[in-house]
Design brief:
The protein is mainly β. Helix content is about 5%, strand content about 60%. It has helices at about 95-105, 105-110, and strands at about 5-30, 35-40, 40-50, 55-80, 115-120, 125-135, 140-150, 155-165, 170-175, 175, 190-195, 200-205, 205-210, 215-225, 230-235, 240-250. The longest helix has 9 residues, at about 95-105.
Length: about 250
Amino acid sequence: MNSRKIVQTFNGRTEWNIGGAGYFKLLSSASPIDIELYDNESQVLSAPASESGFYLRAGFGRVVITTPSNQTVEWLYAPAEGGSDRLSGSISLEDDDIRGIAFGDTETRGLRSFIGGSEITAVAGQFAIAQLFNPAGSGIVCYLEEQEYTARTAATVFRLCDHNAESLAGFNFQGKSKSSLGANSLARVRYGTLAVITRTNILSLPFAPLNIPQVRQFRPTIRITPGNAFQIEDTVVNQMFNFVFEWREELA
């Protein structure tokens, strides 16, 4: 059975009784919308502020969408046992497009993917810290996809944090494009040592053994808006560590 696409312009709360389905996808909306899915009277999903591309595989029979303003919303549903999201028309892909999708490097080819890292030297009485900072007024949003860190002095515990300010005025540089033709990032990588570290929130406290790289893939990604940062801190003074940030940048 094929999927079915719904296109409707409305404002506020609208619901559809579709009988039964096993797959939902939001194709497009001008601004974030609230989505609710129900199986009979049981709520299967409540997803506020959903954006284009959101999808779910689960059994449901009623769809409720609430929009903050008058806008056109496109979504589709399909049966649980399978189907197709081909709607109409045709799609033409060149070999390079297929390779880009298969290997996940469409952002690289679009010159939106960046990498930056370094080594932080130990300083007596101070904590090593690295930060990916999105400057105020940059006009972009950073999506942190992966981080690698390696304890170089001794096994330790790190803090992964978010912050609403630059923590370091010392070493800093722009991230390098993952494309050989790409310009540097607008975001900046900062690193160094501080006697006192400030932060907004502690996200996690991972343990890192000595000299064994630790790779954290963030799914979904960590979103860094202008004027904000993601940082990693050693919880022990006089420690050295290496780090790498990998991220992409989109227009805010």
